[in-house]
From TrEMBL:
Keywords: ATP-binding, Nucleotide-binding, Transport
Gene3D superfamilies: P-loop containing nucleotide triphosphate hydrolases (3.40.50.300)
Protein name: ABC transporter ATP-binding protein NatA
Gene name tied to this protein: natA
Organism: Neobacillus rhizosphaerae
Source organism superkingdom: Bacteria
UniProt keyword annotation of Transmembrane helix present: no
Length: 234
């Protein structure tokens, strides 16, 4: 359902993506790992239709990202590295605002259900300006799924979260998977990747250098080979 061929991205005379080939099946949960500056976020932003590729082909559900990006955007839920919310709006108002952009039916009902799901019922009508990173991230997660996307694109979603927010995030990803959604998650957190993903892709220097199913690989060996932190991975 996601087909990427010979994808490159150049910015400021620098090749950030140097020929990425990748295919992802419907329902897969894929982690993208690799060193800082490897091009992971750039790959996600291209898929999220936020930046244009320099060359190559991307097809999502048979649609061509070059021509059909408006259709494709409706299929996507994107969680950026750090999310901007409307400071003076409550979690509910933020979600209703973004739900309306996507034309979500019964948006208020859906939004308040999601606020509960991410454990913020108590703060339903508080302005978000004083919320912690964990609370903001919970709203951002709810926002990313308010239109029932088929594809979730998550950029370092676990970074800076407390244990409570981590379990909520993981539950959301797993319940989206049960509904058939596909997830691509950039992360530095090998433990979370091993826990919730089926497959790991390693990106280095703008290329995919490894790609494997978690069940088929000795994770200790992988973490050693790529210098990944794996505290608590069993
Ligand atoms: P990662 O997410 O793997 O840490 P990024 O995709 O954010 O890496 O960035 C990859 C490289 O491309 C970095 O060296 C970064 O500085 C550079 N880069 C990213 N975006 C731009 C841009 N718009 N213009 C120039 N260089 C960029
Ligand atoms: Mg980075
Ligand atoms: Mg990044």
């Amino acid at each position: 359902m996601i087909e990427i061929k010979k994808l490159t991205k150049q910015a400021d005379n620098k090749l950030i993506l140097r020929g990425v080939d990748l295919s992802i099946k419907k329902g897969e949960t894929v982690a993208i790992l690799g060193p800082n500056g490897a091009g992971k976020s750039t790959l996600l932003k291209v898929l999220a239709t936020l930046i244009k590729p320099t060359s190559g082909l991307i097809k999502i559900n048979g649609l061509d990202l070059k021509k059909d990006h408006i259709e494709i955007k409706k299929l996507l839920g994107y969680l950026p590295h750090s999310s901007l919310l409307y400071d003076h709006y409550s979690p509910l108002e933020n979600l209703v605002f973004f739900g309306n952009i996507y034309g979500v039916n019964n948006v208020e009902q859906k939004a308040s259900k999601l606020v509960k799901e991410v454990g913020l019922s108590f703060f339903l009508n508080e302005p978000v300006k004083n919320f912690s990173r964990g609370m903001i991230q919970r709203i951002a997660i709810a926002r990313a799924i308010i239109h029932d996307p088929e594809i979730l694109l998550l950029d370092e979603p676990h970074t800076g979260l407390d244990q409570g927010a981590i379990s909520i995030l993981n539950n959301v990803i797993l319940s989206m998977k049960e509904k058939g959604a596909t997830t691509l998650m950039v992360t530095h957190d090998f433990k979370q990747a091993a826990e919730i993903c089926d497959r790991i892709i390693i990106v280095k220097n703008g290329r995919i250098v490894d790609d494997f199913k978690i069940e088929n690989r000795n994770l200790g060996f992988v973490s050693e080979k790529y210098g990944l932190q794996m505290e608590g991975v069993s």
